[in-house]
Design goal:
Layout lengths: L2 H9 L6 E2 L4 E2 L13 H5 L3 H20 L6 H12 L6 E5 L5 H10 L4 E6 L2 H9 L6 E5 L12 E7 L8 H11 E12 L5 H14 L8 H8 L2 E9 L2 E8 L5
Parallel strand pairs: 2-5, 3-4, 3-6, 4-5, 6-7
Antiparallel strand pairs: 1-2, 7-9, 8-9
Organism: Amycolatopsis magusensis
InterPro entries: Methyltransf_11 (IPR013216), SAM-dependent_MTases_sf (IPR029063)
Protein name: SAM-dependent methyltransferase
């Protein structure tokens, strides 16, 4: 077993159902961790989508959602790394990691003494992530992204880009993010953000309903994080997206 996988085992509340040799699997024969939320989520498990996800799918849909003024996918990675304030030796969790592009970048930032864990529920996405390679500090975990299987206060940073709005229970996910972070740990999110102008808000809502994606109000995520003991909250909006950074202070809401 690679050293990085051995280090992940030390973070888990319970042993994995199986170890494939490529990633640790806590879901076993289950197709996914929670209930499906709609077409957008189901597409993430398709082999065709995983094959084009990193080069075409994610950058293309991201550009539509972020508009012309939003960051590129490479820009998102830089923003996430900066928001997380990653340093060598830290442990970072990349929730809903997909094919691992962010995870690999986080592994580089954490260095040989650090650890970047890419967590996803899709076998096809994780298979692509493993084939893409990356630094020795990277490991992958198939597990529930809403109810994280890690022990409390075990990671220095949590990233969840382009996924929270597809979770069946995003509030439970935020609770879980807060739980696994060490005091002073950093959180970085990219999720949906409805327009403030009413005609566009209605269109945003219809789009969300058709795709099974939750459309958050601007400022809503920041307010949820404050109630969970986060501070140093920053919010950046582009199109129908928001990028939020925050620092975990207390273990109480």
């Amino acid at each position: 077993m690679p050293t990085s996988q051995s280090r992940v085992l030390e973070l888990l509340e319970a042993p994995p159902a199986r170890t494939t040799g490529d990633y640790l699997d806590l879901l076993g024969d289950r197709e996914q961790a929670g209930p499906p939320t709609g077409p957008a989520q189901r597409l993430m498990s398709m082999g065709l989508v995983s094959a084009v996800y990193e080069r075409y799918w994610r950058p293309g849909l991201g550009r539509i959602a972020k508009g012309l003024t939003g960051p590129s996918m490479a820009g998102e990675i830089d923003l996430a790394t900066d928001l997380l304030r990653l340093r060598p030796g830290q442990v970072v969790l990349d929730v809903a990691c997909g094919t691992g592009r962010f995870t690999r970048a986080f592994g580089e930032a954490a260095g040989r003494t650090g650890l970047a864990v890419g967590l996803d529920g899709s076998r096809t996405m994780l298979a692509r992530a493993v084939r893409a390679g990356g630094p020795e500090s990277v490991a992958y975990l198939r597990a529930d992204a809403v109810h994280l299987p890690l022990r409390p206060s075990t990671v220095d940073a949590v990233c969840c880009f382009a996924a929270l709005h597809m979770f069946a229970d995003p509030d439970a996910a935020l609770d879980s993010f807060a739980s696994v972070l060490k005091p002073g740990g950093r959180l970085a999110l990219l999720t949906s953000a409805r327009h403030t102008w009413q005609p566009l808000r209605g269109l945003d809502e219809l789009t969300g309903l058709a795709s099974g994606q939750r459309m958050f109000d601007r400022g809503e995520i920041g307010a949820k994080l404050r109630r969970r003991g986060f501070t140093e909250i920053s919010e950046r909006y582009s199109g129908v997206t928001q990028i939020v950074g925050a620092t975990r202070i207390s273990m109480r809401e």
